[in-house]
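INTERNAL TRANSFER SHEET
From: sequence group
To: structure group
Subject: Beta-lactamase-like protein

Please process the attached sequence and return the structure record in the designated field. Keep the field labels unchanged so the import script can parse them.
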Amino acid sequence: MNELERELHYPLGDTLPVAGGALEIAPGVRWIRMALPFALDHINLWLLRDEMEGPNGPLQGWTVVDCCVSRDESKALWEQIFVDALDGLPILRVIVTHMHPDHVGLAHWLCARWSTPDRPCRLWMSATDYYLARIGSAGSNGFGGEGAAQFFAAHGLRDPESMDKVRERALYYPSLVPAVPTQFVRLMDGDLVRIGAQQWRCISGHGHAPEHIALYNEAQGLLIGGDMMLPRISSNISVFESEPESNPLKQFLQSIDKFQCLPTATLTLPSHGKPFTGLHKRIRQLHDHHRERLAEVMAACAERPQCAADILPVMFKRKLDLHQTTFAMGEAIAHLHALWFEGKVRRTRDEDGVYRFRG
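Return from structure group:
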């Protein structure tokens, strides 16, 4: 546990759900944890006790929040959960916080698995993230490929091996999200969603994903924070080729401040890591973290003009694989853009076509 984590409190200690099982953390709220094939090696999913109108009256069951990536291992765990953790009740709907593969990857499979001729199991998520997931799963822009390679090249990542690997990732998203349901229910900031006997308020967030939806239950003091509020790491905040002059870091920091009004005792249920209290401390920690990174980037730009590839060793002290490098490049550009939009650095494009930032 690092020093920042020591400022937070983990009410469940080191207790984790067993693979293929669920752990009840509040009445009608169960925690599922599944492995991921990445450096970030797990995701937390949530089961919420629910009741919805069925063809013959009220129907008891569960709402799922987030799904995991589409792969056989994840499906097998879900099948075990269907048998052991649902108390014999069906899944009634699937809520997805945002469009990243570990959250939406199995939404199509889950909705199809639990839909009946009388009652569809619907996907609920924000419209922005829904349509981007549809685009990504179709492979029409790939969220990778030549466009991403050229974008990173314009920010200094030009070694042939990395360029070739980025080009090869054109089908990376659809490999993890092979399909998205063709119909959905739209979630928007401020919406109140009744799930069983509980009301959950939607809180939108930006910067990590286009329109991330967190869920807050005032009666139980619970926040399903998704990827907007993680206890151990800071969410990735990246500039992508589809929006090459965006300012996602500003959006992210403004978004997490929306949680400031929640009570101090709120139990935050993150997508990665363990449930924790200390939400307000974590918000301050994240502001401090990015303030420190911005100061480091600013100092580097004051010494000499920097491109995003130059900034990688300034912001990331460990060795990065390609998967991590693509995220790190996006995050380096995000920090450079935050300074650029504030007028603290100037951006130029050199004769070699690379954007450089100078203090």
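Handover comment: The chain is about 35% helix and 20% strand. The CA atoms of residues 233 and 342 lie 25 Å apart.
Transfer complete.
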